[in-house]
Every structure is written in structure tokens, then in C-alpha cells.
Amino acid sequence: MNCSRFIALMVYVDDIIIASNYDLGVVELKKTVDAKFKLKDLGPLRFFLGLEIARSSKGITVSQQPYTLQLLQDMWYLGCRPTTTPMEANMKLSKDEGDIMEDPTLYRRMIGKLLYLTITRPDLSDVVNRVS
Question: What is the DSSP letter of 122?
């Protein structure tokens, strides 16, 4: 019988995620980390960096719905009607035409948020890359 065990420890600033198929190993890892650092176990992962994680018998689902709703609200698009495509087909964009923005900060912030959204929405990648 092939019994392969897996433990991954992922750290972002002061947040830690442990993913494993080996429960006893996770318990031992938590004890080891807690001995060196103050550790607060928040239980199964539900939210992390704008990602919503849900588990079911069919597997794990990653969503950015709360992040997306906040993005739409921040950019004043929350009440707008949806569209079937993220950009008009064959639209030509040019950096040499149009008005120059006095302060491109809001645009850059929106592009950054849209780039992050492509984690769960790869269908937006082409459009977001074109306008970034």
C-alpha cells in the first residue's frame, strides 16, 4: 500500500495556512510552531487574502465573490447590468490617442484589483492585460 503524506506550510506576513492529508502531522507541526511563536488556530480555512474557500464532499471551491462585490462598489459599478463579454470584440486601444488622466491613481488601483481577480476569473485575463 502506497501511503504518501503531504504537509504544506504557507506563510503570508502573520498568517499561516497548513494544508495536509496527514492529521497527526498537522497536530505535531502546530505544536512545534506554537512553541516558537504565539499561534492562534482559527480552524478550517474559510477566507484568505480576498479568497473564499468552501469545502464539500465534491472537493474545494475557491471564490472571490466578496472581493468582487467590494471591487464593484469601490468603482461605482455595483448597480450596473452585467454583460456577456468583458470587452467589445475587435476593440482597438491606443496609448497615443485620447485624453491623458490628471491623476491615474484610481485607474492603477482598479487595474491592480482586476489583476488579482483573475486568480479565479482567468476569462478576464486577456482584457485586464490589454488595459493595464
Answer: G
The C-alpha atoms of residue 73 and residue 120 are separated, in whole angstroms, by 19
The CA distance from 128 to 93, in Å, is 12
pLDDT tens across 74-127, in order?
888 888 888 887 777 787 877 788 888 888 898 899 999 999 999 888 888 888
128, exposed or middle or buried, with CB in 10 Å at 0-12, 13-18, 19+?
A: buried
Do 3 and 22 touch, CB atoms closer than 8 A?
Answer: no
Written as nine digits, the cell of 63 is 471564490
pLDDT digits (tens, 9 = 90+) for 14-41: 888 999 999 999 999 999 999 998 888 8
Rounded-to-integer distance, Cα 55 and Cα 48, Å: 14
- The sign of the CA dihedral 35, 39, 44, 47 is negative
Say whether pTM exceeds 0.85: no
